[in-house]
Amino acid sequence: MAPLMSHSVSPLAPKTYAELPPLWGVRLATAQAGIRYKDRTDVLYVTFPHGAAVAGVLTRSKCPSAPVDWCRTQLPGGTAQALVVNSGNANAFTGMRGAAAVKLTAEIAAQAAGCSPDRVFLASTGVIGEPLDATRFEGVLTECEAHADGEFPWLDAAKAIMTTDTFPKVATRTARLGDVEVTINGIAKGAGMIAPDMATMLAFVFTDAPIMAPALQPLLKRGADRSFNCITVDGDTSTSDTLLIFATGGAGLAGAPTIDKADDRRLAPFRKALDELLVDLAQQVVRDGEGARKFVTVQVSGATTARSAQRVAMSIANSPLVKTAIAGEDANWGRVVMAVGKAGEPADRDRLAIWFGDIRVAVDGARDPAYDEATTSAYMKNEAITLRVDLGLGKGKATAWTCDLTKGYVEINGDYRS
Amino acid sequence: MAPLMSHSVSPLAPKTYAELPPLWGVRLATAQAGIRYKDRTDVLYVTFPHGAAVAGVLTRSKCPSAPVDWCRTQLPGGTAQALVVNSGNANAFTGMRGAAAVKLTAEIAAQAAGCSPDRVFLASTGVIGEPLDATRFEGVLTECEAHADGEFPWLDAAKAIMTTDTFPKVATRTARLGDVEVTINGIAKGAGMIAPDMATMLAFVFTDAPIMAPALQPLLKRGADRSFNCITVDGDTSTSDTLLIFATGGAGLAGAPTIDKADDRRLAPFRKALDELLVDLAQQVVRDGEGARKFVTVQVSGATTARSAQRVAMSIANSPLVKTAIAGEDANWGRVVMAVGKAGEPADRDRLAIWFGDIRVAVDGARDPAYDEATTSAYMKNEAITLRVDLGLGKGKATAWTCDLTKGYVEINGDYRS
Predict the structure, then answer these.
(1) pLDDT at A6
(2) Looking at chain B, which residue has its C-alpha nearest residue A380?
(3) Interface of B with A in 73-132 (CB under 8 A)
(4) What strands, in cross-sheet order, belong to the sheet with A396-403?
């Protein structure tokens, strides 16, 4: 998961990076701790001098990393003062030594930030099963605290947490809260081992909105279900999936109301902006899918329920045969039928209709009488492919995002020792 | 699924083919109907002049092929007189025309075999979504009936049903039934779209044992659960998975007892031989996995139940990251941990132990203190890899078989139009 070799930037990378503004109460720094990589930053340190409400969504893997265990323990406290993220080593499946390493890291960070360790949040990404030497953080985090800056470039923060990523992932949105405009900034990493189960590899969202933890948690959960839980690169769920949101409340100084309930009606614009930002970050992860050459949107409608539609969409998005066909620019809707059939959800073959883009290729359980191979083949040459399935049973619908499966994926994950 | 190009034989192919003896009451023939392929046989016709008890296990796909629908309808009858299998076209997702095509094929075969259509069993494999022109069978099956022969080479029968297969799959076993030796012959096909859900692509088993359909069905179901339902090439479940067994009862003439209950104790040796034969065929399908270079056995023990062990084993066997690591001869047990974690089954990270071959690489939730990379890397160079996981929770165990994921798989499924 953490090759030393570098890859050229994904052809699906955004043409420009969003510019993220500074946020009240958020200071950032990065450092080179030399955990695994040479000549690049591998530590991100974020401090909230005035504290921040925090909420999180973590992997449901039964073999979570030590930092995931740590965050799960600290999240009920609801308050954060520092965040430390390292790349190069996931500190996953490292036994007692892993638990000791997160404790020591939190203590070092707490000393630097001037808070108790239970206000420190941690995430690690990189190789699994290698012990992480937390003493490496000792000088590094004190140094980070000394240099941490509200004007620090967010793009550099995103770069410090990359592993097989070929580009840093950043997004920003604004929303009205009461009469005040609040800002939401987010960064993420991830390119392989992407089939988030309640969260993604690593994503961190920061806002100056004064939203308390009890309101923040359901907001984030709902947003994750519509973004990170709708993407897949390879169907493999990471041990380290972590999505955290930090709300400093700075906008309260400008008159934004303090929100402590998720059903507060004033949250509607914020919720919309947060959902958009999460989808933006999640799609960037797919756009950096290992070996990806095409960005694929899978839309399923006509399912008995939304949940059923979601499962069918993910069955299609995870199918190696569908994904290799798209890599080969082959409108192979037979494989889409296969993936619908294996999803185990209610489906009636003879009511199925399938579209590639706006071209209907199948209807009433058979090839569309108007099917034209040349038109469909031309569509498949696009970089962004939309694949739509209507099950013809009910009103449930869902969308999933994935990428094609190319020889590049096998090369990245098989052709070198990780 | 049905390329016109030919592939060289899988390096994992058996060194020799089993020699299958003639079976009393079974006559075979093949033909070239020109359905899709040129210059090769694409129709297998098997006739049981004295009838045969029949049992079957069919795909649970919600989008099954028309021949699967046909078999599901006829199986309760319990008697077969003919079997027609074609390659090149799966007659799947072909709507009303597909249903009409199986009906016409059965009628043509019934006329040739001199029986009613409900005693004809059908299977098709190849491209999905293309209408199958059943009139092609008209002269062909009459011709087959005229030439059908008990001495016909079973290997040629297996060749006629190949699609992306690089070698024909045959197996034979004998067993005592009462005081008589009975024979079981089996043929199968399959290389991609292999994640059988209650059966595999196509497999047909023939025996002269006098076992009636009510006893045959549970025997076959149990055998399929321990063989075809334990293999995966790509996690994609076919629309056409069909496993049928035909028992002519010929051994009854030599004095074998007629069995009509699955719990008849005299069945024990037959059950064992049948299970072995099904595992043999299932493993051959994995050995012909598209692009496969390594044969992988995944053994899981210490699970809370056998079913749980099976799910964990299949989660590992289906993981693209585990399979690409094996292709790269990388003993990446971190990815095994990931695959255990995502299975959704009871697991305790800190009790997990993992072996590659006889080398324990991880124990008590962390890398084995005695781990030696050189030894492990040397083991990974083998063509057959055994990967063992003990969950340390209970007594449930299971085995799954798979192959590595190579660029060859992507090439076969993506680099040409199918």
Answers:
(1) 47
(2) B417
(3) 90, 92-98, 127-131
(4) A231-232, A396-403, A295-303, A384-390, A353-356, A359-363, A366-367
Amino acid, res. A224: A
Task: Kindly state the tokens that stand for B201.
Answer: 């692509």
At A354, the amino acid letter reads I
Do A342 and B318 lie within an 8 Å CB cutoff?
Answer: no
* B200 is annotated as an active-site residue: yes
Q: Which amino acid does the sequence have at A150?
A: G
- Give the whole-angstrom CA distance, residue A386 versus residue B223: 41
Contacts of A235 in chain B (CB under 8 A): 235, 318-320
What residues in chain A have per-residue pLDDT under 50?
1-6, 416, 418
CA-only gyration radius of chain B, Å: 22
Sign of CA dihedral B341, B353, A130, A97: positive
A333 vs B59, B129, B345: nearest CB: B129
Residue type, A29: A
Residue A19, both tokens: 């510019």
DSSP string, A295-323: EEEEEEEEESSHHHHHHHHHHHHH-HHHH
Q: What is the dihedral of CA B174, B175, B179, B182, to 10 degrees?
A: -50
Q: Flag whether residue B345 sits within 8 Å of chain A, measured between CB atoms.
A: yes
User: Using CB atoms within 10 A of its CB, is residue B9 exposed (0-12), middle (13-18) or buried (19+)?
Assistant: exposed
Q: Which of B64, B236, B417 sits opposite A319 (nearest CB)?
A: B236
* pLDDT tens profile B376-404: 999 999 999 999 999 999 999 999 999 99
- With CB atoms and an 8 Å threshold, state whether B235 touches A332: no
B79-92 in b/e burial notation, b at 16+ Cβ within 10 A?
A: bbbbbbbbbbbbbb
Q: Which two tokens stand for residue B125?
A: 């494999």
pLDDT of residue B193: 81
B165 in Cβ contact with B12 (< 8 Å):
no
A394 Cα distance to chain centroid:
30
The pLDDT score that the predictor gives to residue A1 is 34
Phi/psi of residue B125, nearest 5 degrees? -145, 140
Instruction: Kindly state whether B234 is in contact with chain A, defined as any CB-CB distance less than 8 angstroms.
Output: yes
Return d(Cα A140, Cα B91) in angstroms, integer. 64
ipTM for the assembly: 0.83
**Using CB atoms, which residue from B92, B234, B347 is nearest to A320?**
B234
User: How would you classify residue A91: left for phi > 0, otherwise alpha for psi between -120 and 50, otherwise beta?
Assistant: left
